[in-house]
C-alpha cells in the first residue's frame, strides 16, 4: 500500500538537503529546538517513570494529555519556564544553558540529517552519527560534529556496528522516514547494550478520531511525495520490537512525542 524508495536509488533527502534547514526554521523557533535539547537531556535524566505508556496507540480518541499544551504535568523534565510549544519560546538558538549532565559513554545518533542536534550533545558523549543521505551528511560535516563523534553514511536498518557498541542511542524526526521501523528497532536493540537508553523525538499519528484520520489522509500523500509517514505509531512500534517504554511525552496536540525507552 505504501511506496518505498528502493535502496538502489539516492535517498530522497539528497534533494531536500539544500532547503531542509530553511524549511524547518519556523518550527525550530516554535518548538523543535527546545525539544531537541529535551531529547538529549533524556539520555541522562533519571526521573523517567512509566507515564502515558498505556495509550501509545492513540486510537481511542482519548487525549493522552499534552503536558505543554495547557495541561500541567508535574513530572515534566522539560519545564524551563517555557510552558507552551506555541508560545514565546525564545529558545531558537543553541542549547547552551540547558545544563546537560555529562554523558560519559558511547552515543549513537541515527538519521542525523544536517546535524541540527550537534549543539545539544551532552558533554563527554562520543560515538557515531549515521545518516543515509550523502547531501544531508555533507552539510552535517560543515557544522562540525561534536568532538569524538564519527559521521557514518548508513541506514538504520543495517547498522555497521558490533553488538553492544553503544551505551545509548537517539533519533529526532527519523522514524517517520525509515523504510522498516521493526528492522531499525531490532538494530538499535542489537547495538545498544542492555539497560541503555533509546530516546526518540518523533511526529506520530495523533490521538483523537478526527486528528488521527486527518493524519492518515495526509500520510497517503506525504508517503508518495517524499516517503514521510505522518501516521506512524512509533512508541507502539518500539514496544513491539522489545524495547521497554519508560516515558512517552506528547507535545503539540500529541502530533509530536518524546519517547524514552530502555533496551
Ligand atoms: C526529517 S529528517 C530529520 C533529520 C535530523 N534528525 C533532524 O532532526 O533534523 C529525516 C532524516 O532521516 C533520514 N533517514 C531516512 N531514512 C532513514 C533510514 N532508513 N535510516 C536512517 N535515517 C534515515 C533522512 O535521510 C533524513 O536525514
Structure write-up:
This protein has 263 residues and is α/β, with parallel strands linked by helices. The chain has a single domain (13-74, 100-262), classed as Vaccinia Virus protein VP39 (Rossmann fold), CATH 3.40.50. The protein is 28% helix and 19% strand. It contains 5 helices and 7 strands, in the order αββαββαβααββ. A 7-stranded mixed β-sheet has the order 3-2-1-4-5-7-6, sandwiched between helices. The radius of gyration is 17 Å and the shape is globular. The structure holds S-adenosylmethionine. The site of S-adenosylmethionine has 20 residues, from loops.
Protein traits:
single chain; 263 residues; alpha/beta; Rossmann fold; 7-stranded mixed beta sheet; 5 helices; 28% helix; binds S-adenosylmethionine
Q: Please write the string of helix (H) and strand (E) elements.
A: HEEHEEHEHHEE
Q: How does the major sheet shape up?
A: 7 strands, mixed
Oligomer: single chain
Structural class: alpha/beta
Q: What radius of gyration results from the CA coordinates?
A: 17 Å
Through-space gap between termini: 31 Å
Q: What count of structural domains?
A: 1
Question: What sort of overall outline do the alpha carbons produce when their principal axes are compared?
Answer: globular
CATH superfamily: Vaccinia Virus protein VP39
CATH architecture heading: 3-Layer(aba) Sandwich
In DSSP terms (H or I, runs of 4 or more residues), the helix count works out at 5
Bound molecule kinds, no repeats: S-adenosylmethionine
**According to CATH, what is the class?**
Alpha Beta
Major sheet strand order: 3-2-1-4-5-7-6
Could you list the spans in which at least 5 consecutive residues all have pLDDT below 50?
A: 1-6, 57-97
State the total count of DSSP E strands.
7
CATH topology: Rossmann fold
Our estimate of the beta-strand percent is: 15-25%
Query: Helical residue percent?
Result: 25-40%
Mean pLDDT: 82
